[in-house]
């Protein structure tokens, strides 16, 4: 089950400002739960928030500027790589299971 935390705590935990978090939500880079008493973020968003912060910080330190579209492309590219790696791992597991089944049938 997701653990939700208020925007101020998330900002502090992830070393960003509440203004940045609100802007990133507005830009659909991250998601939050709008409640009567404020915005709440799932702790599953923490890695994404930190990644966005790092992308923008690295660009600033390099003297360049990243647009939100640039950030989206980086996040999307990273997501595609992760999915491909997960698919490869699943394929290897299935091959190992098939091999084990074949060996089991050969022994009996």
What share of the residues lie within helices? 55-70%
The pLDDT mean sits at: 87
Largest sheet: 3 strands, antiparallel
Q: What strand order characterises the main sheet?
A: 1-3-2
Shape: elongated
Structural class: mainly alpha
As a percent range, the share of strand residues is 5-15%
Which radius of gyration do the C-alpha atoms yield? 20 Å
Order of helices and strands: EHHEEHH
Structural features, described:
With 108 residues, the chain is mainly α. It is built from four helices and three strands; from the N terminus they run βααββαα. The longest helix is centred in the C-terminal third of the chain and has 40 residues, at 68-107. The model has no long low-confidence stretch (mean pLDDT 87).
Keywords:
single chain; mainly alpha; 68% helix
Task: Give the structure's gist in a few sentences.
The chain has 108 residues and is mainly alpha-helical. It has 4 helices and 3 strands, in the order E-H-H-E-E-H-H. Strand 2 and strand 3 form a beta hairpin.
